[in-house]
Specification:
- This protein is mainly alpha-helical.
- The chain has 18 helices and no strands.
- The termini are far apart.
- The C terminus is likely disordered.
Length: 401
């Protein structure tokens, strides 16, 4: 913890971390609020699912595209434009009664214009701290983002059920605008300039570490999404137990990230951390008792944030600075698709065999991530004794004198 205190004393780190967490807070609220609102307006969860699918597709497409735009037009311009468009789309959904295709179109627009805060801040981090501090910073970032997934669903559920779904959507817009403005106006966002990449979009995906990070992120988040579906199916949407069990899962991840963040990252780091996740998820299938599930998910959670920290560090260390935002955009897209796939697979298995099927799906996703980490271990950079800073875009040229 002393290391984290020193890290947060670094000028600007605490502020930029708080700003980006606030700006990203709506990410943990929007899907649930849209689900509740569209279901109320149409009387159909299927219709709500179509709107959420359109939103997720938009987010998946936007990830690498808007991230790359930041190297062309600058972070503040891209963040401001996407923020305004996204807020306008969600406000329109809340205030204008429409047919389902129109809701889907606005959901797609909201997804496409989701501000690329996460790629932006993870591009900024290497310019704010020393190389020695970068890996612990990624770990702290991965840990603290669990606050979003612990608090955001609770806040939006309370507002939607006690006040109304329209105020819930408008609350998202307010937090989106205030948090986004705080992040955009942060001095570091103005100081750090991403050089324009000289490579075509998608070229960064030819690098093995980025491919591995995208695939492993897909599988890890797919496992987490399957767990969420399983917990809800076990205890019901209205059960207090569901919220508590998911909260302890996130708390386990938070504890793991803070506890393991100082450990140097070698080639086997991902395999060890996914091993913890896989064992914990496998044990969930023993019993659906609330105490057993809580305990096993705490164990599984201990590996989640540390595994994400490895993903962030290997992504940063494997590309040139001009490509970092796009690389993080692709990795984020993989995670979004993983969330959709995990939820879908778990849903089918819940219908077929019950809630245990979701935990089986989660275990399989995590185990596949573990297998990838072992089979392709040489594709992971060894960051022991070196920092996770991106490679410079220029290098000395040898001359004959």
């Amino acid at each position: 913890m002393a290391g984290y205190r020193d890290l947060l004393r670094t000028p600007g780190v605490g502020r930029i971390m708080a700003a980006q967490l606030t700006a990203r807070f709506p990410n943990g609220m929007t899907s649930l609020a849209l689900l509740l609102y569209i279901e109320r307006e149409t009387g159909s969860y299927g219709a709500a699912g179509l709107v959420l699918a359109a939103t997720s597709i938009g987010q998946a497409i936007a990830g690498p595209v808007t991230s790359r735009w930041m190297g062309i037009w600058g972070m503040r311009k891209v963040l401001t434009l996407t923020l305004i468009v996204c807020a306008t789309a969600i406000t329109t959904v809340a205030l204008v009664e429409m047919v389902l295709p129109a809701y889907m179109a606005l959901g797609l627009i909201a997804g496409l214009s989701t501000p690329p805060v996460q790629p932006a801040v993870r591009t900024i981090y290497p310019k704010m701290v020393t190389g020695r501090q970068l890996t612990p910073l990624f770990s702290l970032d991965a840990s603290l983002q669990e606050i979003i997934w612990i608090l955001a669903p609770v806040v939006i559920t309370v507002v939607a059920t006690q006040v109304g779904t329209v105020p819930a959507l408008l609350l998202i817009v307010v937090i989106l605008l205030l948090g986004g403005a705080w992040f955009i106006l942060s001095p570091e966002v103005g100081r750090v300039r991403i050089p324009r990449s000289r490579r075509s979009i998608g070229t960064v995906m030819t690098k093995p570490p980025i491919i591995i990070a995208t695939v492993v992120g897909f599988l890890l988040i797919g496992a987490c999404a399957a767990v969420e579906a399983g917990v809800v199916a076990t205890f019901g949407h209205d059960g207090l137990e569901a919220g508590l069990v998911l909260a302890v899962f996130a708390v386990g991840s938070l504890a793991g990230g803070l506890g393991f963040g100082h450990i140097p990252i070698g080639r086997w780091a991902m395999a060890r951390r996914l091993g913890i996740v896989t064992v914990g998820l496998a044990l969930t299938m023993v019993s659906l008792n609330v105490w057993w599930l809580g305990g096993t998910l705490v164990l599984a959670g201990l590996g989640v944030a540390p595994a994400l920290a490895v993903l962030f560090a290997m992504t940063s260390a494997s590309v040139k600075f001009s490509d970092t935002a796009e690389a993080f955009g692709w990795v984020g897209t993989g995670q979004l698709i993983g969330a959709a796939a995990g939820s879908a697979v778990a849903g089918f298995l819940i219908d077929g065999v019950g809630p245990t099927g979701a935990y089986l799906a989660a275990t399989i996703f995590a185990a596949m991530g573990l297998v990838v980490s072992v089979v392709f271990v040489r594709g992971f950079p060894d960051l022991r004794g070196r920092d996770a800073s991106p490679m410079p875009d220029t290098a000395p040229v040898a001359t004959i004198t």
